[in-house]
From TrEMBL:
Names of required cofactors: Fe(2+)
Protein EC: 1.13.11.18
Assembly information from the UniProt record: Homodimer. Monomer. Interacts with TST. May interact with RELA.
Alphabetized PANTHER family for the sequence: PERSULFIDE DIOXYGENASE ETHE1, PERSULFIDE DIOXYGENASE ETHE1, MITOCHONDRIAL
A Pfam family this chain is assigned to: Lactamase_B
InterPro entries reported in the protein's UniProt record: Metallo-B-lactamas, Mito_Persulfide_Diox, POD-like_MBL-fold, RibonucZ/Hydroxyglut_hydro
GO BP annotations, alphabetical order: glutathione metabolic process; hydrogen sulfide metabolic process
Domain Metallo-beta-lactamase per the UniProt entry, residue ranges: 51-212
Family note: Belongs to the metallo-beta-lactamase superfamily. Glyoxalase II family.
Species per Swiss-Prot/TrEMBL record: Ciona savignyi
Protein name (record): Persulfide dioxygenase ETHE1, mitochondrial
Primary site of residence: mitochondrion
Amino acid sequence: MLKHKLFPQLKLLCNQIGRPTQRLSQKSLVRQVHSNGNKLIFRQMFHNETYTFTYLLGCPVTKEAVIIDPVNDTVDRDVKYSTEMDLNLLYGLNTHVHADHVTGTGKLKERLPNFQSVISKVSGAKADKFVEHGDTLKFGKQVIECRATPGHTAGCMTYVLPDHAMAFTGDTLLIRACGRTDFQQGNSEKLYDSVHNQIFTLPEHYQLYPGHDYMGFSVTTVAEEKILNPRLTLSKEKFVQFMKDLNLAYPKLIDISVPANLKCGEISRQAMLGSEEILNK
Ligand SMILES: N[C@@H](CCC(=O)N[C@@H](CSS)C(=O)NCC(=O)O)C(=O)O
Ligand SMILES: [Fe+2]
């Protein structure tokens, strides 16, 4: 009751949803969802099995949208969600050739007729559109700038939205950590330079969204990581040694993911069943 006094609009919405005869149409619900003055529709989604973040970004004016690092297992969720939000997905951007999961861009291409996959040219992977350092991509009134950030893999790309002070760092920079450098032309010196020259040079208030998080975090800032990242605050020499000593086990799905992702997520039924078996172990 009190809630309804404080929020008359909430009462109206509850009433409309509650009475079947007066239910909001999909279109008017979407209009209400988007009528908050935000200039960007932004959702962060998670894949529990591989701790992967997928990001949905939409232009509230034109409804054009992009998805960053979709996972093949969650394509149904992502299509349903974008459709409910009335978004027209134009691009699926991969930050790199993933080693731990199969990208969803191949499956999304099958589901959405105008959808195009995007990856860096240097990655050597198959895609509809290749980007290089300095390129820009547009969806509606929104602009994405591409910054090459090699080191975790040779073809890693960080996607920056200057109008919203956000950057999507893939596995180059993780929250209080960074991507490993022991496969896929990984190189610790290059990763250190990429972070210091392409990410830490962004204004300090920029929010950084990583490709994974294994500790329960979701977002960080340039200011935070410049001071608190235990790896990237080391000298370059000490960082290289630290990465040499990491000794992580290889990702469980590496032998399935890398070949599939080099082909935009094309995966045989047999490999798909194999990956389910590995994840369920
Ligand atoms: N155990 C996971 C793989 C974990 C892993 O290696 N993560 C990568 C990012 S995915 S390529 C990484 O760079 N980690 C850095 C770190 O310090 O954790 C699995 O089997 O999939
Ligand atoms: Fe990775």
